[in-house]
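worker-03 picked up job from queue 'complexes'. Input manifest follows; two sequence lines, order preserved.
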Amino acid sequence: MSHNQETGPSGTRTVVIDLVVAAIIFALGALVGWDSYRIGASWGSDGPQSGYFPFYIGMITCVCGAVVFVQSLRKLGTDKSVFVTPEQFKQVLVILAPSTVYVLGVQLIGIYVSSAVFIALFMRFAGHYTWLRSVVVGVAISVCSFVMFEIWFKIPLPKGPLENLLGY
Amino acid sequence: MEELNALFHGFAVVLTPYNMVLMFIGITLGVIIGVLPGLGGANGVAILLPLTFTMSPTSAIIMLSCIYWGALFGGAITSILFNIPGEPWSVATTFDGYPMAQQGRAGEALTGAFTSSFVGALVAVLMFTFLAPLVAKFALQFGPPEFFSVYLLTFCSFVGTGKGNPFKIVASMMLGFGMAAVGIDIVTGQLRLTFGLTELLSGFHFLVAVIGLFGIGEILLSMEEGLSFSGHSAKINPKIVLETWKKLPTYWATSIRSCIIGCWMGIIPGGATPASFMSYGVARKVSKDGDKFGTGQLEGVVAPETAAHAAGTSALLPMITLGIPGSPTAAVLLGGLLIWGLQPGPLLFVEQKDFVWGLIASMYLGNIAGLIVVLTMVPLFAAILRVPFPIIAPVIVVICAIGAFTVKNNMLDVWLMMVFGVVGYAFKKLDYPLAPMVLALVLGDSAESSFRQSMLISQGDLSVFFSNWLVGGITSLALFALLWPLVSALLTRLKPPPKTGGAAA
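worker-03 finished. Artifact:
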């Protein structure tokens, strides 16, 4: 990760994230191994049981997680590279947070209205476009995808009150 | 000349007006996907896969494989004009392509890149045409132990050819296998790793993972760099094209070398990305202008592009003949085959002649169509790139959400896509490779069932994987690839380092 090797101590260090991710991988491996053991990871009357293969997958996952964890521990003192600077993290949140709200919107009021609102608001507030341009682009893309999926390809996407009102 | 007859039959299948239109739509969509950040070959094909469910499998694979060719071509445009590799395999193209654009030779660089892509693909398709039926015929004799050893080789090669930390490669792979195991066990009907959640009954769909890991993850990464990028304008006119074509034959040796590297790296699952780097490195070492590489040498564009395209094409060979894809995009195409009701593997050549030879014929025609489309429409595609990121970013999120939803018409998948997006972002920053995870997720069930069948045959004795010369050879090769990082580390420690410079490639 040479591109974020900054001397300033701002931001979370890569090694710390590496440690956390390795621990999560170890835990996931343990989970897979444990559940496979629960349903039987040995030789049944008719051959290998259901947990036979995943059990070893879980074990290998654990080993890899543990090794990466130890490797990162040894670099803890020396490696000062930064995983993400506060400015970068802010930029990531600029798209991540609205996208999450958008997915919630898709679930509640359907995909077409949410998409139009999402694109328009993002253009307005992250891209500083005029309201007119933002709304036109948002609505246009939404209408295009409606025509393409609902009418042309007949693939149903999540719909909400507005589409019901229009009779779809 | 059985193959030639079959191939001409394939051309007859492809050369219907409907399929030709699909081909051009596919190429154009593919180039757009290759040009846009956050959309790549793998998740582009994944998102568009549901659109093909109503088509016949042959038309569907023609369109999807053309999207793939288009994406391979498109990656070069962003590399050369914007110094942003649209695809991982075009990173090496930026080394000499972008300096050329800075010197005002963008047209020359683009023509060189497209033409050598075309040459690479053509050589790979020729190899495909004659080698694939042989491999398929050979593979018809494979039993479960042989298949498992090929799977083993596939996954071990990731460790052998990968550049990063081998433990991270294996960890990513094992997470993929773990996710593949979620849901109903196809042999015993037992529920695995569902923890009482009915939503997990059908397991994780790899298309959702691909869209999240590559699509959303890539958008998050691009956002880090801020909301703007700038690039050079491109002019391509027939004069530049002809002049460049006159120069290209002087690089015939580089071309041939790159084709060989590309074909080899594509068949073993190294994939297009290492192939392009390796080819660039070899060209730099062998060429008499080697010292000038990196300053805008046409040869430095020819080498990686030829190899990337040759590898991208030959990655389909193990996918079609053995059912084992050599790259994430090939894995998505394999998933498509399963959804269309085709069983990939050697029998495809016996039972689905129309499909297989239609696909091979479409490889020839698709690449010719691709060359025409990219050469004539470069200004248009460069204009797409100039659409500001604040518009592109939310639109790509919307496209990804639609893609994830249509996989199973399930809202949970859209949420999973977001989770995979964050995972993809973190993994990319921590150098965990994503390709092994995707391949493991796709192949997990087949690998497991061939392992279990082998174990049943041998009553739990692992020596079945060494029971004859064929399976023993493949298994040994796999173990060698797995241990290669260890061996090469030992070798470099024993030998005094001669001078570092990509020698390990």
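worker-03 released lock.
Confidence is low (pLDDT under 50) at residues 499-505 of chain B.
Strands of chain B lie at 183-184, 191-192.
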